[in-house]
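Researcher: Checking consistency across runs. Here is ABC transmembrane type-1 domain-containing protein again:
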Amino acid sequence: ERVMLIMVIVIMAVVVVVVVVVVVIVVVVVVVIMIIIIIIIIIIIIIIIIIIINP
């Protein structure tokens, strides 16, 4: 019985670790995508300003 209990605890721990890792990866990916989008928007705005200033 004790072996079964240990196995269950180990499996639960592994599942928790996997879930945490997946969540962290998803958050990092979302943040990186948002940063890239913000940088692209800033570049587009700068290009538009340059075009407006230099006819």
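Researcher: Does this match what you'd expect to see?
Model: One thing to look at in this run: The longest helix spans residues 2-53.
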